[in-house]
Amino acid sequence: SQKIEQNSEALNIQEGKTATLTCNYTNYSPAYLQWYRQDPGRGPVFLLLIRENEKEKRKERLKVTFDTTLKQSLFHITASQPADSATYLCALGGRGSTLGRLYFGRGTQLTVWP
Amino acid sequence: GAVVSQHPSWVICKSGTSVKIECRSLDFQATTMFWYRQFPKQSLMLMATSNEGSKATYEQGVEKDKFLINHASLTLSTLTVTSAHPEDSSFYICSAPWTSGGTGELFFGEGSRLTVL
Lengths: 114, 117
Hints:
The complex is a heterodimer of chains A (114) and B (117). Chain A is mainly beta. Chain A has strands at 3-7, 10-14, 19-26, 32-38, 45-51, 56-59, 62-67, 72-77, 86-93, 102-104, 108-113. In chain A, the strands form two sheets. In chain A, strands 2, 4, 5, 9, 10 and 11 form a six-stranded mixed sheet that branches. Chain A has a five-stranded antiparallel sheet with strand order 1-3-8-7-6, with no helix packed on it. The radius of gyration of chain B is 13 Å and the shape is globular. The A-B interface holds A 4, 31-32, 34, 36, 41-46, 49, 51, 89, 91, 93, 99-107 and B 4, 6, 32, 34, 36, 41-46, 49, 91, 93, 95, 97, 101-111, 113.
């Protein structure tokens, strides 16, 4: 079965710096990859989607890259703010019979300190 | 934006009882909804795909007789945890895709925290 690893479990950075979160996967060839933000006790909120034929996507202060050869996605938050503190989840989406179903990593807890 | 509403947000029940959780898409129709479960410090685990007008599709290892799913309309899916036991205590979250086709983002409900005593 597919395995998704988000390194690391926790990341602490200073306000204004760029946060870089990593998502690695094995035993799977996703058609697309998504990133979500989850606050404690809440449901995830969609941030970005990148497809297998795309290398990079940007949205405001967010940037995601997708390397299907390395089986890795990087998620960047530039000019980070304390309000960015949350758990960030990567999720893989398939094709065919698995279309629409997402498989999530454990998440990386980001803390941005002033 | 699209909103998915989940109810109840938390529930405490005695072991052996059944609990029903509702998931509604408020401003769009969802022929498909997904049910996830999340234990503390763990990832969201996909339990099943709820299909309007047909049977749900369950992931491997999920007991379909224990977790009953009914997708009665284009805006409502329900998950019933039957004969709940303490090990069923978890955070249950539903989601629905905004667009048909299956490759778009999911909108998640706020989750339902189930505690079985």
